TrEMBL record:
Keyword Cell cycle attributed: no
Gene3D superfamilies: Dsl1p vesicle tethering complex, Tip20p subunit, domain D (1.20.58.670), Exocyst complex subunit Sec15 C-terminal domain, N-terminal subdomain (1.10.357.30)
Domain Exocyst complex component EXOC6/Sec15 N-terminal residue range list: 50-219
Location of the Exocyst complex subunit EXOC6/Sec15 C-terminal domain: 412-770
Sequence similarity: Belongs to the SEC15 family.
PANTHER family cross-referenced by the UniProt entry: EXOCYST COMPLEX COMPONENT 6, SEC15
GO cellular component, one term: exocyst
Protein name: Exocyst complex component
Protein task: Component of the exocyst complex involved in the docking of exocytic vesicles with fusion sites on the plasma membrane.
GO BP terms, alphabetized: exocytosis; Golgi to plasma membrane transport; intracellular protein transport; vesicle tethering involved in exocytosis
Keyword list, A-Z: Exocytosis, Transport
Pfam families reported in the protein's UniProt record: EXOC6_Sec15_N, Sec15_C
Amino acid sequence: MAEIGEGPGTVPEHERILQEIQSTDTACVGPTLRSVYDDQPNAHKKFMEKLDACIRNHDKEIEKMCNFHHQGFVDAITELLKVRTDAEKLKVQVTDTNRRFQDAGKEVIVQTEDIIRCRIQQRNITTVVEKLQLCLPVLEMYSKLKEQMSTKRYYSALKTMEQLENVYFPRVSQYRFCQLMIENLPKLREDIKEISMSDLKDFLESIRKHSDKIGETAMKQAQQQKIFTVTLQKQNNVKFGKTMYINDRIPEERNEIVLKHAFEEEDENEEEVLTVQDLVDFSPVYQCLHIYSVLGDEETFENYYRKQRKKQARLVLQPQSNMHETVDGYRRYFTQIVGFFVVEDHILHVTQGLVTRAYTDELWNMALSKIIAVLRAHSSYCTDPDLVLELKNLIVIFADTLQGYGFPVNRLFDLLFEIRDQYNETLLKKWAGVFRDIFEEDNYSPIPIVSEEEYRAIISKFPFQDPDLEKQPFPKKLPMSQSVPHIYIQVKEFIYASLKFSESLHRSSTEIDDMLRKSTNLLLTRTLSSCLLNLIKKPHIGLTELVQIIINTTHLEQACKYLEDFITNITNISQETVHTTRLYGLSTFKDARHAAEGEIYTKLNQKIDEFVQLADYDWTMSEPDGRASGYLMDLINFLRSIFQVFTHLPTNSSDHAAMSGKVAQTACMSACQHLSTSLMQMLLDSELKQISMGAVQQFNLDVIQCELFASSEPVPGFQGDTLQLAFIDLRQLLDLFMVWDWSTYLADYGQPASKYLRVNPNTALTLLEKMKDTSKKNNIFAQFRKNDRDKQKLIETVVKQLRSLVNGMSQHT
């Protein structure tokens, strides 16, 4: 029942599956067959039955078809058997014909193959010739490139590479050797860059080593040109009756000799003139510049060159530590710098863009600042004026040389003005030593003249004029000492030395005149004045020497106007010019005279003190010796001889006579006042406790001698008893004690007309107490005598009154 129930539903499904199997690809049969087993149980049996039925149907159809075509197949086989016999005959005939044909064509084939082979060879040869004709120029150019590389013609090699790349390589780019060449060209370019850069480094190193030689040659040429120009100018001045400097050092004959010698040197050196191209091979720079330009890397080369040159500039500008010791050190420094900038100037003018004017100006400004700083520092160590002068000449040549190459050098000439001040300082130090030596060697006595020749020789060196002295017969003496003409000559030498620095500074005659006068003023007011003051203060300079120094300064002062004329003759600038500086010799020598006068007064007082220290009074003596003390008489004799020396002071004019009289009078008054003060201090010395009347009388004898000396007019010119007034204090004090006129003193005290107006109560009290103590000691038993008792009471009364006066004075003050 179940099978019957399933039959109608499953048959269509089985047919569908069979259709799918027949119509689909065998690879997809699996899912279809799986569906048979996935259906109801025993469905595959039904399917197999259905499949068998289908197979039986197909077999029946195949059988029907075979039965239908069987007769035709038999007929075809029969015909084919008939054709086989004919075919075998034909095969035999064809084989025979082929054999005979092959035998006949063997020789032709051989000849044909020969012809073909020859044609191929001919074609190949033609092709090879064409390709070789195409490749040969490339190979020739490449060979040329190799030759250029081997002969170091790198710029030409780069041009050859350009031709190869642009013209030749495109024709043969398909060949391997061309590719190898193309791959090798960048390496060759790098090799050329490295080699050219190496040559450039060698060049930079070479010019660094030889820059001093280049600079030396350039400076020498500039110096020769300057000498020629100056000499030609001098020749024109001589021809037209003009001279640049009028002095006894540059006669016209010497100008002619110098001119002739300069022209001879110019002729000799004309053939030896070398340029920077003669000294330096610049081809490495040109070659490297062209190479980098061709390679399109010109900026890299420019930066490298400038960077290296800046480094070299810093090395060149760095001086040696001991450069200031010798002129050769400065010369090497300058020649290296000049050599450096001469090379840069040459590069500037022969290349385009490698070095620009802005670059050289920047480099020069940097170098100039460094040069000025170096010179300012090192020149400060120079103490030798000759070395400073040589340094100045080197700086001038250095500046002129670089100025000729277009570099601004105004700051160098400004620096020279600073160095000029230092040069003047070194000159002042040198001349200070010269002046000291002159003063040390001087004997400070008038110059003896024994013949006319000696007289003329001296006045030719020193402007001395004295008509009265000229009329005197020989031998005679000039009032000044030997140091005066020597000082005058050395001042002129100083002016010459100062003038040497002013030459070639491109300054006007007015400025040179001003510089000479200012430096001469420094010499007079500072150096000579200081030497004179130090000389005056020296212990071994006595009063006689001081008097001679005063005489010397007077004559040096008179010679200052001749020094001004001397400077005027050098510079041709009149003294009447508004801005002309005057010489300060007048004030300088006046100050020296005043110092000498003060020293005279000081030394005179010191000498008086020495004599006073020899005093040996017996302050307790009862009776005087009846004559003045020996030390005082020696002192008075000494003062007489000293004041006699003052008669030698210059009196050749009214002013000098007044001056000499004033000095003598001041010295005499100062000596008398100092002597009076010393004697008064001797009486009032606190260590002196007792003074007897006999000692006062002896002291009075000494004061009388002092008064006699003052009244004898040791120095003319005093009016009346002016000089004696120096001892008036002592005189009134001694008179008061010797006359014992206390009643008058006490009664007239404070009155303008008092006889003892100059006696101070304190002084009188001090001396009276010293005498009172002496009276007590020497008159122990005199108190029993009435007169002595009365005198003692009087002394005590006077002491009390004097004390009251002293106390009153102190309260009033």
